[in-house]
Write a structure and sequence with these properties.
This protein has 336 residues and is an alpha/beta fold. It has 14 helices and 14 strands. The chain has a six-stranded parallel beta sheet, sandwiched between helices. A six-stranded mixed beta sheet has the order 8-9-10-7-11-12. Strands 13-14 form a two-stranded antiparallel sheet. The site of nicotinamide-adenine-dinucleotide has 24 residues, from helix 1 and helix 4.
Length: 336
């Protein structure tokens, strides 16, 4: 039995509490959230303790922690729990600052800690089936990847101000999927970004619409398009084109029916956001983390994946500023 401490009882903390409760080999022992009353709801639902972070750090009855607190707390908490000898699942991003991510991962390495970063799309059944089709040779060699990720609406302004911006907060998921699907590191990033949906997002220092073109050393390419507005729901599509075919995953609708009548063919609306679209993936990623802790195995989404996604985000931001294609390796070397 892997005994879990959960840090943060907000949106994603509640999703992960439910995921832990559905894994037979895990037990949610305690939740820590110094601010939100939602910690009480988690305790009442799952029968765990409420403890402080300091108490969880020294709790002998906790093997692993799941960090779901705001982004600016992640790196400090990872370091503290690594030194306390706990296995760690941490929500993305590790930190908004590349140097801080690198320093944090040094502590993880020194302490030989199991660290998994929450890139849930790698655990989504559609994305996994798509990758499996590639691995089975069904489309030949990967040549071009196309990713479309659009949110139904922008998050609150105060979230936007603290989020690190559209590349570090939103496109970070696409950067991770791109690296996974391309199967090679990205050599250059060319990006463009604008404010098209709400001028206030620009006033808060961010963009709401962005595109990136990634290119690997062998010439494989990936295009990513992000928008903070999609009037028709949570738009999450992917296509991978290869030398012998292509494979695609379409959006998830609220049900699979199609109505045909004199007005044409209509389908129900799309799922509304990440909490519904990726609910199966969130469960599978937490199951994977618990299995890795039990078997002392390396998680499939590592601290290195967390580092590379932030490096790509910084490269994209620099490309927007300069108009030039930017090499993530230069960003990584410059920050060392
Ligand atoms: N992988 C994904 O799809 C995904 C989705 C949503 C959020 N996230 C990430 O998860 C993190 C949390 O996001 P959220 O949307 O759940 O935020 P949220 O604001 O809903 O929840 C954060 C919670 O942490 C609590 N908190 C604040 N400081 C704390 C501390 N020091 N110790 C313990 N608890 C503390 C807050 O009271 C709040 O309840 C962010 O880093 C975000 O980027 C990832």
């Amino acid at each position: 039995m892997i005994r879990i401490g959960l840090l943060g009882a907000g949106r994603i903390g509640q999703v992960h509490a439910r995921a832990v409760s559905s894994v037979l080999t895990a037990q949610l022992v305690a939740i820590a959230d110094p601010i939100s009353a939602a910690a009480g709801a988690v305790r009442n639902t799952y029968g765990c303790d409420i403890r402080t972070i300091e108490q969880i750090l020294v709790s002998d009855d906790i093997d692993a922690v799941i960090i779901c607190t705001p982004t600016d707390t992640h790196a400090d908490l990872i370091e503290q729990f690594a030194r306390a000898g706990k296995a760690i699942f941490c929500e993305k991003p590790v930190d908004l600052d590349l140097e801080r991510v690198q320093a944090c991962l040094s502590v993880v390495n020194e302490t030989n800690t199991t660290l998994m970063v929450g890139f849930q799309r790698r655990y989504d059944p559609d994305f996994q089936a798509l990758r499996a089709a590639i691995d089975a040779g069904q489309i030949g060699d990967v040549e071009m990847v196309s990713l479309i990720s659009r949110d139904p609406g922008a998050p609150p302004y105060d979230y936007i101000e603290r989020s690190g911006g559209i590349f570090r907060d939103m496109m970070i998921h696409d950067f991770d999927v791109a690296r996974w699907m391309l199967g090679e590191e990205v050599e250059t990033v060319q990006a463009a970004a604008s404010v098209l949906t709400d001028p206030e997002i620009g006033n808060r220092g961010d963009f709401d619409s962005a595109n990136a073109i990634l290119r690997t050393a062998s010439g494989k390419q990936c295009t990513i398009t992000n928008s903070r507005r999609a009037t028709f729901g949570y738009d999450q599509r992917i296509e991978v084109h290869g030398s012998a075919g292509s494979v695609a995953a379409d959006n998830h609708h609220q049900s699979r029916i199609t109505v045909a009548n004199g007005h044409g063919y209509t389908r129900p609306p799309l799922l509304d956001f990440f909490m519904t679209r990726y609910i199966v993936a969130y469960g599978a990623e937490i199951k994977h983390f618990i299995d890795c802790v039990a078997n002392r195995a390396q998680p499939r989404t590592s601290g290195h994946d967390g580092l590379m996604s932030i490096a790509l985000a910084e490269a994209a931001l620099e490309s927007v500023r300069t108009g030039a294609a930017v090499r993530p390796v230069d960003i990584l070397n410059r920050k060392k």
